[in-house]
Design a protein that fits this description.
The chain is α+β, with helices and mostly antiparallel strands and 255 residues long. It is built from nine helices and seven strands; from the N terminus they run αββαβββββααααααα. Bound molecules: iron/sulfur cluster (SF4) and FE2/S2 (inorganic) cluster. Residues 75, 160-166, 183, 186, 227, 229, 231, 233 line the site of iron/sulfur cluster.
Length: 255
Amino acid sequence: MVVQTAESKKTIKLVITRQDGPDSQSYTEEFEIPYRPNMNVIGALMEIQRNPTNANGGKTAPVCWESNCLEEVCGACSMVINGKPRQACTAIIDKLEQPIRLAPMKTFPVVRDLAIDRGRMFNALKRVKAWIPIDGTYDLGPGPRMAETKRQWAYELSKCMTCGVCLEACPNVNDRSSFIGPAPVSQVRLFNAHPTGEMHAEERLDALMQDGGIEGCGNSQNCVQSCPKGIPLTTSIAALNNDTTKQLFKKWFAQ
Ligand code: SF4
Ligand code: FES
């Protein structure tokens, strides 16, 4: 099959899965926009926003999407691009096969078109207390120091941008399961490793041992392959399987 690149066509063809509202039926709409070198998918969506005309020449509503940082840091622009969940801001048009197919990530409720509600991830972070509890009423001074080797792997975990790609890739995160998904589990490992955060390690492990917690992982390993930040999600899940098992035995023997 001959792959038509944007360079050879001088236009960009897109097939976008659209949805007018949370409860509306989805449909696809095709667009053909002028080619410019070095465009990313956000640039193509901005072009459609500037001139909302579909490939048949009909006027249409501008396509809705979400983005903020435009440098793969905020996680807001995640969508399914040519079948793969990823960030639209780092999806370069010249590297994509056309027509470029854009769809919302199906693990999350659609707000409109490509904009989704990632609330289930933020609720999961609240549930596992993924923060360091300081009340901010006075200056606590510098926190306890971390060993350099520990700081290095903790830094890797801290790169999570709550983009939702690992939840989209995980077969066990769906509307038939309450599994919170790999990212919140990995954040428990991060905050339990922190010298101040570890004071609440037991509470976080308890949260992971409840319905929808770590037992929901089916070890498909899709998450670790899909994470754009290269976070070692399966290593985190294995470490927390260990920690929750130890906590379970500790509680039994304490009875
Ligand atoms: S762990 Fe990776 S894929 Fe999952 S939400 Fe965080 S950055 Fe995105
Ligand atoms: S806009 Fe922030 S990750 Fe794409």
